[in-house]
Amino acid sequence: MDINRRTVVRGAAAMAAFGIAEGTAGAAFADTSSSSSSPASSSSSASSAYSLEFDSTAWSYDAANDVYYQIGKVYVTAPAATDIENLSIHVPGAYLRATANSDGTTYTATVDPKGTVGEYSGRTAPIVIPVNTPGYAAQKPATSYNYSSVSQYLQAGHIYVWPGLRGRDTSTSTRSDAAPWGVTDLKAAVRFLRYNRSVLPGSTDDIVLFGMSGGGAQDTVAGASGDSPLYHPYLRTIGAAMEDAKGRPLSDAVAGVMAWCPITSLHEANLSYEWNMGQFASTGTRASGTWTSAYSTDLAKAWPKYVNRLGLRDERGRRLELTGSGDGIHLAGSYYDHLIEVITTSLNNFLSDNTFPYTITTMGGPPGSGQTGSSTTYETVDDCIAHLNTDSAWVTYDAATNTATVSGLADFAKSQKNANKPVGAFDGYSRGQTENGVFAMGLNAPAHFAPLTRDVIKANESTYATYSDWDSGYGSSAYDSDFAKKDSVGKDMAWRADAYNPLYFLSPAFDGYRRSRPARHWRIRTGIMQGDTANTTEINIALALRNYGIRDVDFATVWAQGHTQAERTGDSTTNFISWVATVTKK
């Protein structure tokens, strides 16, 4: 089974990924795409109604909170959707010297490099960018100023930039906003900031993205794919800033990524979901006698072959692989042991972080989703462990050391991580999953996108056809048809799926390896109980980053938390702000 449609390469020539100067970073990667077919192939267009130049005479001012801001600046010269592709910027007043304009409402301002907020100055302040795109939906831009939504970041000395980003829910009858447009817009916004760095406060060397779920996925993709040539034809199409005013290449690489529960690595997510959770379920689409039950087993069997070819290694240099086992599907080997270590560490962190009696409150969904969770109070640690062992004894506890040991994946999954999605959890066999819309070929035209899933269907189609609930429309030909279609930029599904796969840029199993500029700093948090994606999703990203040579990877799973902005202690915003302080220049 091929991991990718392109030739698998290993040991691609290394480059100085972290020593490239900001103004020349883009020149380090070959761009084989043609610019002649793009309507805006240069940094700006004389015929465009939009300019890349930032207007320093158009600042508004909140005197009560000492904040300068601008709302609605279009960040490309040929936008596909002006109502979305614009950004707002919020700046602590200390970072600007301003004079009132004659209109009495706006200000002309220049950077004050000596103005400070805490340890940051007008030149060193980090720029933080939220990526709030649940389910890969659009991030609508701000249409008005609201201090409360940005106050914590500004008080910490950050510059807060909020770009509108297209998504799967904003396509029209004449325009598809499906992948990779969301990340393309995000990259264009970053390039806009660098194009205007001489007139904007803050350090464009210290741009940090943060998001959860689909937002965590897209900031992970953007963080892994800095300056990737896969995005260049898309960026040129919308008139993104490719060069600065002096003709020097601009970069869309960022310094840091904060990702909570990123729903990503979609190319293999169907497989890992069934291996991690689906093989232990027996209801719904996994009920005996259904073709989807057989499909679940086949997807689970395909995933070990995939993960073994990634060549992942732990911090000790041990190669991580799955091997056959007497029970279940490949529940043995060094990769399996590593997964159990992660789960055990998560539980032990929970025991060390908290005192009892303790009330566990699980979130039902992302903030604002309206989904309710549940609360349970345990008087003692023993009560908590007994609850975990209700159906089977899979956790042992040593009171003397306050540590627990997890015996295996099967009982953990049955107790704490149930499969709440149907088989084909991401690329659905009837194109009915959210992610099929992420790769839609037009309005209301969801599409298949995962070759690994197609290969499983192709290899077992004759067997599935013997089941009464099988439909020929689920066959591999439907996948092949979708894969062959090209988008408005002339790229097929394989190109688009690669652009949205962070491992494509981080793993030597793919030929995007070392052809991008990954972020230097990463913080990844995930709720261990979430049924939205496999444990392996975040584990593989963290491993691939470390194997790539990224030294600063702060990764943790959070016990008793689900699909939310999970944190071991404290709140997510405060922890994020504190982390930014440790990874940016002062």
Walk me through this protein's architecture.
This protein is of the alpha/beta class. 28% of the residues lie in helices and 15% in strands. It has helices at residues 151-155, 181-195, 214-224, 232-237, 269-276, 291-310, 334-353, 381-388, 409-416, 434-438, 451-464, 476-484, 493-499, 502-506, 535-548, 572-583, and strands at residues 60-62, 67-74, 86-92, 96-100, 107-111, 116-117, 120-121, 127-131, 159-163, 207-212, 256-260, 358-362, 374-378, 395-398, 403-406, 521-527, 552-558. It has a 9-stranded mixed sheet, sandwiched between helices. The protein has a two-stranded antiparallel sheet with strand order 4-5. Strands 6-7 form a two-stranded antiparallel sheet. A hairpin with a 2-residue loop joins strand 6 (116-117) and strand 7 (120-121). The longest helix is centred in the middle third of the chain and has 20 residues, at 291-310. Residues 1-47 have low confidence and may be disordered.
Summarize the structure.
The protein is 28% helix and 15% strand.
Write the layout of secondary structure elements.
Elements: E1 60-62, E2 67-74, E3 86-92, E4 96-100, E5 107-111, E6 116-117, E7 120-121, E8 127-131, H1 151-155, E9 159-163, H2 181-195, E10 207-212, H3 214-224, H4 232-237, E11 256-260, H5 269-276, H6 291-310, H7 334-353, E12 358-362, E13 374-378, H8 381-388, E14 395-398, E15 403-406, H9 409-416, H10 434-438, H11 451-464, H12 476-484, H13 493-499, H14 502-506, E16 521-527, H15 535-548, E17 552-558, H16 572-583
